[in-house]
Amino acid sequence: MTTYKEAGVDVDAGDDAVDRIRPMVRETFTPGVLADIGAFGSFFELDLDGVEQPVLVSSIDGVGTKVKVAARAERYDTVGQDLVNHCVNDIAVCGAKPLYFLDYVGTGELDPGVAEEVVQGFATACKENECALVGGEIAEMPDVYGSDDFDLVGTIVGVVDKPKIVNGETVQPGDVLLGLPSTGIHTNGYTLARTVLFDRYDVDDTLDELGGETIGEALLRVHRSYLSAIQSLVDAGLAQGLVHVTGGGLPGNLRRVMPEGCRASVDYEAWTRPPLFDRIQRDGEVPEADMRQTFNLGIGLVAVVREADVEEARRVLEQDGESPVRIGEVTATD
């Protein structure tokens, strides 16, 4: 006789994990949430007060191999925040405000304590972004994942009033690129970063240029949310285009908001590149082109604004606690 647990799936551990996370998930509930976790579906009642032409905006993403760093450092309290903030930024740059978030956690062997830490990260970021964590899935699949492996995926849904959609259609030559700083690598480029750094250092090693942080701490810095800054620009009508700098770096992501006849010209000397990126490039002898197409290099969000609006955009962003940097401009293609 072979039981499900002997085959590799521990239902009791799953129940324990759900019991642990239920209180923290409830803390994220907003007035629109109509069902507790555990139902077959999640219910969310839309409050469209002040929204004349509501458009739902959704996105799905993961944190990639950053989970490998979390496992290596045995620290799981940040990657959940990374996932929520990444997803929030992706819809915020379209002008949307997040409504609710759902997660997927896949693992080879379920550790309820690890699941609790990860979901606590989801809950923390959802509360900070005023976004409800309405449901999710924890899947134990020993035939798919190794015993110490896990994966994270998140789906987010938000709403934007149609006249406030930001998609780059109004971008034109002469517009200015204002960059906001990242907190680190965020959630892209970890395969390259791990290959370079963990061939030379241990996760607990420190480097002078990291200011006392360990390699693991530097790599696990939380992918920040730009929601407040984005909404301030959108509400002021200053954003012609907004770019969340993820996979593809500045070149790949700026291209996504450039209409026909326009291209983004970036001055890579306009800001000081964080030392972690310099260390990766130097130790790995990584070509500059690869660095630019793989990492955010210290700029996690770009706002495209009119030249005449630059000072007002700076004022709005500085009131939000930001330190915008002029990193380039939009030019006409040949």
How is this structure best described in words?
The chain is an alpha+beta fold and 334 residues long. The protein has 2 domains: 4-164, 60s Ribosomal Protein L30, Chain: A (2-Layer Sandwich); 176-332, PurM-like C-terminal domain (Phosphoribosyl-aminoimidazole Synthetase, Chain A, domain 2). Helices cover 34% and strands 21% of the residues. The protein is built from 12 helices and 9 strands. It has helices at 4-7, 11-26, 66-73, 79-92, 112-128, 190-197, 215-219, 227-235, 249-254, 275-284, 288-294, 310-319; strands at 54-62, 97-107, 132-140, 150-161, 176-181, 241-244, 262-266, 299-305, 325-332. A 5-stranded antiparallel sheet has the order 6-8-5-9-7. A 4-stranded mixed sheet has the order 1-4-2-3, covered by helices on one side. Strand 2 (97-107), helix 5 and strand 3 (132-140) form a beta-alpha-beta unit. The longest helix has 17 residues, at 112-128. The protein is globular and about 75 Å long. The chain starts with a helix and ends with a strand.
Secondary-structure element sequence?
HHEHHEHEEEHHHEHEHHEHE
Here the CATH topology of the largest domain equals 60s Ribosomal Protein L30, Chain: A
First-residue to last-residue Cα separation: 72 Å
CATH architecture of the largest domain: 2-Layer Sandwich
Could you name the CATH homologous superfamily of the largest domain? PurM-like, N-terminal domain
User: What is the general shape?
Assistant: globular
